[in-house]
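Quick one: structure tokens for this chain, please?
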Amino acid sequence: MSRPATQAPSPAARPGPRRSGPRRLAGRAGIYFAALVLAVYSGFPIYWMIVSSLRPTQEMLMTPSLVPRHWTLGYYTSLLAQTDYPRQFLNSLIVAVTTVALTMMLSVMIAYGVTRQRIRGKQMIIVGMLYAYMFPPLLLAIPLYSMMTLVGLNDTLLSLVISHLTITMPLGVWFLWGFFKTLPFELEEAAMVDGCTRLGAFLRVVLPLSAPGLVTVAIFAFLLSWTDYTFALVMIGSDANKTVPLGLASMIGAFDLRWGDVMAGSTLIALPLFAAFIALSRYFVQGLTAGAVKG
């Protein structure tokens, strides 16, 4: 018996030719080059800020170079000893830490309640939070200032914390809502079967599993509060309650521009951000990835 003739695969079914070696190498080289350009574009201003805070004034203004010829810590000593920068740094730290704590507490409560409880109009709550986050700070600053004046909280750090919550809390609720929504409720039920209360299941099961999302919200809240200038400019009037962004802005005058002090102050204000990101980068990346997939 003759074997049946096999039908040749159609041209459409044949696999396409593989990319040649030089083309693949050129593609990778292009990706690496684009990444290098992006890294230099993002990192060079930070490098220039740091080295400018360590070079003398004459060299900074007359003959700047990529690597300083002379090094000095005079800007840092004068900034810390002769200005109100230490008090401003402490004010910024108090406001940022308080904002992060309140943002985490309120965002977790609202997001978990909307996710697990049967609440009428909970979709409207989430949409309202998202719309609230879309308003620019300048649009909210003047009405908030009027409200703080009526209740006697103008020119206080508490008014600044409340103002920051209008930006950080909607972001936290919206992000954690997408995170909690994908956590199986069966995990909490299993914990309650084993003897946990509803609160115990939340503290021992939900919160540990939500650590990447919580860290991401905390970093964003700290970043928004720590670097805020608009709300601080409107809410704070006295020198005793100024934050670091306001203090740095006051060093730039019409006839006096202390570039060295500004660069040193900017370097110091960036240090907590770098430290927080380096320490929590693993959770931060996991939180962003989980939020993008699960939300």
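The radius of gyration is 27 Å.
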